[in-house]
Amino acid sequence: MLLEIDNVHVSYGKIKAIKGISLKVGSGEIVTLVGANGAGKTTLLKTISGILQPASGNINYQGKPLSDIKPFERVSEGICQAPEGRGIFPGMTVLENLEMGKFSRIAAKSENEQDLNMVFDLFPRLKERISQFGGTLSGGEQQMLAIGRALMSRPRLLLLDEPSMGLAPKFIAQIFEIIQEIKKQEVTILLVEQNAAKALSIADRAYVLETGLITMEGTGKELLNDPKVRQAYLGHGA
Ligand SMILES: Nc1ncnc2c1ncn2[C@@H]1O[C@H](COP(=O)(O)OP(=O)(O)O)[C@@H](O)[C@H]1O
Ligand SMILES: [Mg+2]
């Protein structure tokens, strides 16, 4: 297992956002976490990337305690989060935004070019807009830029927080296709989504998160066909 989360609790002061979660992400998998607004999805991703500390419980990454890797070292160890709401630099160009994604400023020029080409192969639209300021991109393009920037760090574990949020249907379909392309490059993906139908359809395995607890798990297909999941997250009864 690439990532093993065991009975993790996370609080904001007195507010218990994660109340004992255990889940696993195997190398090369797409694992999806679905759940309503406020379920604790972002909190869990931030705990993995090191923005938040667990109050208790263990997380292992590549078989070792994640707590041994300092938050600022996690990107260079392959853990990279594309944050909710994109978080790109609006006053920087597309190229500058992508270059910010390299964890090492001293990466060889050839390596940098190789990574840029990989991103531009996935997102030809970004290549067309290489000199445009991030802030002037459409919502869908900003999301592409956020994912592209995360890929520049050559992640082993990519944490995607609601990549389809706020996007037009055309872009939503494209983002999910690209997530599948990224998987082919042997990047493991933990995907958080409210768009449960799309997310479950591309997931190898999935978990349902409800107010800080995991209430269901299974293959993407199992959860997609589950009456309770359909009722609660897919907007129609069984
Ligand atoms: N900075 C914060 N301070 C206090 N409570 C927070 C903070 N961030 C999130 N929460 C609370 O933690 C819970 C989980 O939030 P979050 O992880 O953002 O949910 P999700 O991403 O699933 O919508 C919610 O009840 C939310 O109000
Ligand atoms: Mg969230």
UniProtKB/TrEMBL annotation:
Keywords: Amino-acid transport, ATP-binding, Nucleotide-binding, Transport. GO terms for biological process: L-amino acid transport. It comes from freshwater metagenome. PANTHER family: HIGH-AFFINITY BRANCHED-CHAIN AMINO ACID TRANSPORT ATP-BINDING PROTEIN LIVF. SMART domains: AAA. The keyword Nucleotide-binding applies. Residues 3-236 form the ABC transporter domain. This is Unannotated protein. Belongs to the ABC transporter superfamily. The keyword Transport applies. One of its GO terms (molecular function) is branched-chain amino acid transmembrane transporter activity.
